[in-house]
Amino acid sequence: MAVKFKLVMSNNSNSTDNKTTNTTTTSNSDSLDKIMAELSNKYNSQAVQIVQVANQVQTNRDLASGNKTKQVGPIKLVDSDIARAAQNSIASALSQGSKEFEQKAGRPMTYAEMRAMWG
């Protein structure tokens, strides 16, 4: 969609120079929404995979040791070393996503954008 803006520039002698500029608008909010959705899908799916791997590692460890995995409702409790590794991997993925957002959007993401993307 082409939008016309009329720029009125004045100098000290109170005369005005009128110029009309044609610009093609790409909605910033649409492009930001697209960037956010793309990165959210990419990095949130990585985070889910990390959690799934952590759960599988814990299950394998439990099977090898004969222990039963502790579970609270639907949440499987994993040993602290597995949890730390998963936490570091997730933090790394989100950090990469934030850097990629900054490259694509040309600015750091706002707190609201972080919350919308990463929860």
Report on the structure:
The structure is a single chain. The chain has 119 residues and is α+β, with helices and mostly antiparallel strands. The chain has one domain. The protein is built from 3 helices and 4 strands; from the N terminus they run ββαββαα. Strand 1 and strand 2 (16-24) form a beta hairpin. Helix 1 crosses helix 3 (111-118). Mean pLDDT is 76; it is low at 1-26.
List the helices and strands and how they pair.
Layout: E1 2-10, E2 16-24, H1 28-65, E3 71-72, E4 75-76, H2 80-105, H3 111-118
Antiparallel strand pairs: 1-2, 3-4
Helix pairs in contact: 1-2, 1-3
Keywords summarizing the entry:
disordered N terminus, 61% helix, alpha+beta, 119 residues, two-stranded antiparallel ribbon, 18% strand, 4 strands, two-stranded antiparallel sheet, elongated
Morphology: elongated
Helix share, percent: 55-70%
Q: For the residues shown, what is the average pLDDT?
A: 76
Rg computed from alpha carbons, rounded to a whole number of angstroms: 25 Å
Class per helix and strand makeup: alpha+beta
How many runs of DSSP E, i.e. beta strands? 4
Summarize the structure.
This protein is of the alpha+beta class and 119 residues long. It is built from three helices and four strands. The chain has helices spanning 28-65, 80-105, 111-118; strands at 2-10, 16-24, 71-72, 75-76.
